[in-house]
Amino acid sequence: MAVVKLKGVSRYFPVGNKPITALDKVDLTLERGEFVVLRGASGSGKSTLLNLIGAMDDPNEGEVFIHGKALSSLSDKQKSQLRSHYIGFIFQSFNLIPVLTALENVQYPLSLQRIANNEAKDRAAQALAQVGLADFIHRRPNQLSGGQMQRVAIARALVTKPDIILADEPTANLDSETSKQIMDLLGSLNRETGVTFLFATHHDFVLSRASRILELKDGHIVKDEQLQNLNLVDQIASGEKVG
Predict the structure, then answer these.
(1) Which of 206, 212, 239, 207 is nearest to 228 (CA)?
(2) pLDDT tens sequence across 91-139
C-alpha cells in the first residue's frame, strides 16, 4: 500500500475577487522508502503540497490519503495524532525550542506521545547519535552551529519512527558544504530506515541524492522522473556510465 496518495487535489486561496490556485487537480503516489525531491520556482505550490500531505491544511477539492486513510475523514485530534506518529517534519528555520537542550528538543515529540521518560531519553539519545551528535546532547541551540541545529531537527523528525519525513527547504539556511553533508546524512538515513523522504528544494545538488524528482509549475506536476537506485555520486564512484 502507498504511504501517501493524492487524488485530484486542488488548493486555492481567495485574493480579492479572484482566487489564486496553488495546486490544480494533482494526482500523486509516494511509496515506502522513496527519496523524492520536489522542485519548482517560488509560488509553484511546493509548500502547499507539503502542508496538505502533513495534514496541516485541507484541500478545496480532491482527497489526500495516508496509508489508505482519507484525511477528510479524520477529526482535528486524529490528524494531530497522525502527525505525531506517522509524519516527521524538517524546517529550514530548524524550529528548535531555545531553552531546551538538544536531547530535550528531540525528546519533546515523544512526550506528546506519552512515552515513558526513561525510554524517551534513550530514544532521543540514540537518534542524536545516529546523526553524529552524541557528544552534543546537553547543548542548547545557541551553543550549536547551523549544521548541528539542523541535525538536531533531523533527529527530532526521526525519533518517532515516522513513515514519511517532509522537509521544506532544509538546507536553505546552511552553507554549501554543510548542506551537502546534511543531504548525505539524510540519504544514508533513508537507506538505513526505509523512511520515505519528500524534500521541497531549489538546490540542484540535492537532485543527485534523489530516487525520484517531481517538478511543480503553476500548481501542476509537470515532470515526474524516476531515477536509478544509485545516485549520481555512487554511479561515478563505481565507474558506471551516467546519463
Answers:
(1) 212
(2) 888 999 999 999 999 999 999 899 999 999 999 999 999 999 999 999 9
Report in angstroms the alpha-carbon separations of 195 from 3, 118, 162, 190.
Answer: 10, 25, 7, 6
Q: What residues does 9 pair with on adjacent strands?
A: 26
* Residue 11 pLDDT exceeds 60: yes
Give the torsion through C-alpha atoms of 112, 138, 199, 73, to 10 deg. Answer: 0
Does residue 151 register a pLDDT over 90? yes
Give the pLDDT score at 228.
62
3-class DSSP state for residue 64?
Answer: strand
Residue 226 amino acid letter: Q
**Residue 24 pLDDT:** 96
The CATH number that domain 1-74+163-243 falls under is: 3.40.50.300
**Average pLDDT of the chain to the nearest whole number:** 89
Cβ proximity of 197 and 190 under 8 Å: yes
CA angle 143, 130, 81 (to 5 degrees): 90
Where do the CATH 3.40.50.300 domains begin and end in the chain?
Answer: 1-74+163-243
Cβ 190 vs Cβ 198: under 8 Å:
no
Classify 27 as helix, strand or coil: strand
